Amino acid sequence: MRGDRRIDTECAGERDGVSQCERRVSGVTESYDRVNYTDIEPVSGAMRPLTDSLDSERVGVSIARCEPGWRSKPHDHAAEDHEEINVLLDGEATVVIDDEPVDLKAGDAVWIPPTATRQIRNGDVESAFVLVSGPATDRRSATCPDEPGSWVIDGFVG
């Protein structure tokens, strides 16, 4: 329950490992999917992309569990105009952004603009990342009507 809104959730079952659920908020039904990242086959040995399994259209999310010495391919998201945030949950790694190495330790996050070339270079221990990408936006362009004076940034209220 949040404020005077009532929230009820019901999951009808699973399809291909994805839970099919509905959420009712103050009489409005919203559908959502739930998936466990360990059920998704890794790509390039480390990346588990959740976006397709969750039918997301605007936000890309991947989990990367990187073995010692693993490296991603250098790439950018200029064609999609997607910015990216890499959050290192465990371990230590380097994210190279436009040829500049950025050393990360557990808990660090780095924002990467769409046109920047990026590459994850894992060190000597296993690391775990959450990678989030989405269309570049004016960060204060959307407001939250239930909370005057607040704003929404890529789905988070601030």
TrEMBL record:
SUPFAM superfamilies: RmlC-like cupins. One of its GO terms (molecular function) is nucleotidyltransferase activity. Gene3D superfamilies: Jelly Rolls (2.60.120.10). InterPro entries: Cupin_2 (IPR013096), GPI/OXD (IPR051610), RmlC-like_jellyroll (IPR014710), RmlC_Cupin_sf (IPR011051). The keyword Transferase applies. Residues 65-132 form the Cupin type-2 domain. This is Mannose-1-phosphate guanylyltransferase (GDP). Pfam families: Cupin_2. Keywords: Metal-binding, Nucleotidyltransferase, Transferase.
